[in-house]
Design goal:
- The chain has a single domain, classed as Glycosyl hydrolase domain, family 43 (Tachylectin-2, Chain A).
- Helices cover about 5% and strands about 50% of the residues.
- The protein contains two helices and 27 strands.
- The strands form seven sheets. Strands 19, 20, 21, 22, 23 and 27 form a six-stranded antiparallel β-sheet that branches.
- A hairpin with a 2-residue loop joins strand 20 and strand 21 (about 255-265).
- The two termini are about 20 Å apart.
- The structure holds alpha-D-mannopyranose.
- Alpha-D-mannopyranose (MAN) binds near residues 33, 138 and 312.
Length: about 350
């Protein structure tokens, strides 16, 4: 069955070769999962650029942030012959009970006047900083709220994966708010406006043993302190989203309620996109949800790559009925596609 997405003919619009490394010692392995916003009539992507250090036949290497090292980056080394080294998932290096990332990500700005041809900045816009971001920062959502842009991203370190937040008005000066939701948590997508006088966000706390990886909603008086946490939507047995779910970008206001495009994975880690509709005045109520994916990996670049069978979206632009999503395919390249709000709403099961 064809999905609801019309993919750009130009896909992928970003591959690793299109992005220069942050320093000559590193190489760009993947460019993926961009946050998206509009500014001065331009479409802007905040790309996740995942960098790696060169491996050898005998040693596997990965960069980490280290303030006292040259360029602020140290390279960890693992002997391939070590029986305690597990490289079975390309995203991770598991060694003697500790898990490291196989790449380190930063956020890089790319801008465009037509939404298809982008110019990428030669240097990172934001790098991880401090003890909670030493393995990098990933999958940023950009939400404009009351004239200020809020950047919420996965902050990764040996302390776990939490939600870091940075805000800016002019994209020149940035305020670092630190970790707003502690490990383990990901996929934080604030609503673009207040509801019932409060700010709200979707997010995805997780515990491997009980409960699983579900989408939660929380409210806040100031976007920094989150409470009244509610489990909003759960992964569903025997569905495309049976293993885990997580929010995409900021929910979209429609006449019927808040539309959220989210990702779900099955037990084979196949990542698809679906949607849910939340109450217009009470976003803790799920009114409708996708029975089947609205987008699933089908193009060759979505099926094969660094981590194949993945479409992952954390940023889009809405123009009336038309949504342009920018998404990571196979965790390796960035692509674009359009969908119609009306078609998504019509496809949901009430
Ligand atoms: C996680 C995220 C994403 C990634 C997917 C698929 O959910 O960290 O960065 O795209 O896994 O690997």
């Amino acid at each position: 069955m064809p999905d609801l997405a019309t993919r750009f003919e130009q896909n992928p619009i970003f591959s690793p070769v299109d992005v220069p490394p942050s320093i000559p010692d590193l190489m760009v392995r993947c460019v993926l999962n961009p946050g998206v916003f509009r500014r001065d009539g331009k479409t802007c992507l905040l790309l996740r650029v995942a960098e790696d250090a060169e491996d050898s036949d005998t040693v596997v290497r990965t960069p980490v942030l280290a303030p006292n090292a040259p360029n602020g980056i140290a390279v960890l080394e693992f002997e391939r012959a070590d029986p305690d080294l597990d490289l079975s998932d390309p995203r991770f290096i598991v060694h003697r009970g500790e898990t490291y990332l196989s790449t380190m990500s930063h956020l890089r700005l790319a801008t465009s006047t037509d939404g298809v041809q982008f110019e990428v900045a030669p240097k990172p816009l934001l790098l991880g900083e401090g003890a909670h971001e030493s393995f990098g920062i990933e999958d940023c959502r950009v939400t404009e709220i009351e004239g200020r842009f809020y950047l919420t991203y996965s902050a990764v370190s040996a302390n776990g994966v939490g939600i870091g937040m940075v805000s800016t008005e002019d994209w020149t000066e940035f305020t670092r708010h630190g970790i707003v939701l502690p490990p383990h948590n990901k996929d934080c997508a604030p609503f673009p406006e207040r509801i019932q006088g409060s700010y709200w966000t979707l997010h995805r706390p997780f515990d491997a043993l009980i409960g699983g990886r579900n989408i939660w909603i929380s409210r806040s008086p100031d976007l920094l302190h989150w409470g009244e946490h509610v489990c909003l939507a759960r992964k569903r047995p025997d569905h495309w989203d049976c293993e885990r779910i997580g929010a995409g970008a900021a929910p979209i206001r429609t006449d019927e309620g808040w539309l959220e495009i989210y990702h779900g994975a099955d037990h084979d880690s196949r990542y698809c996109l679906g949607a849910m509709l939340l109450g217009p005045d009470d976003p803790t109520r799920v009114l409708a949800r996708s029975e089947h994916p609205i987008m699933e990996p089908s193009a060759p670049y979505e099926k094969e790559g660094f981590f194949g069978n993945v479409v992952f979206c954390n940023g889009h632009i809405v123009d009336g009925d038309r949504i342009t999503i920018y998404y990571g395919a196979s965790d390796q390249v960035v692509c674009g596609a359009t969908m119609l709000v009306s078609e998504i709403l019509a496809s949901l099961r009430r």
